[in-house]
Amino acid sequence: MLRSLRYGEADRILHLYTLDRGRVSAMAKGVRRARSRFGGRLEPFGRVALVLHEGRSELLTITGADTIEPHRRLRESAAGLDAAARACDAVARLFETAESHPPVYHLLCHELALLDADPAAATLANQLAFRLKLLLAAGLAPQLSACAACGERDHLAGFSGAAGGVVCGACEGSGFPFGEAAHAFMTEALGRPLREAPAADERALRQAERAIRETAEHHAHVRLRAATGHNG
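The structure corresponding to this sequence follows.
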């Protein structure tokens, strides 16, 4: 579940990310009543198997729900909850259509499971590694091996969201200063599993965050929420 909104006296509209249909919205009738037939199975950030009724509108109706992974430990941690909310928000913004993207579904499941197993994993590095992998899944991974403007492989000193990656000293005017540590972080984060997000200092992580944000804005026309968390 990506997020939920109250509707009427006892219902909720849930925004879901599914394996087979991508992002969908569904009504959970009576879920806010004390004796709801869904019980606690539709909690935020849980992984559930749903039975959905499709009527004439795009809004589906939930008629059955079984819990697969409740992610209870995640919801007991403020940092874990915040990281989970930002991960779901990034998925909702970058993949807003009802189109199946299995790698995105599995990536989100992996991230939520990681945060549930160890809420201390909710680091800034983890959040940025997750967003980088989302950009990769969207076909928007930034160019990191050569200047995105001219192809030069040396003297890579900046990053340009408009160009789509790192830029050399000659092309740096189109971007912002981008240090070796930020470059190394992004390269390693793309190649490592989420649970092994590389360490980096605050300056490098903030440069990487800016690079991710500007890539999403220029090429997906999406503005991502600021990432939070400690360096880890």
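The mean pLDDT is 92.
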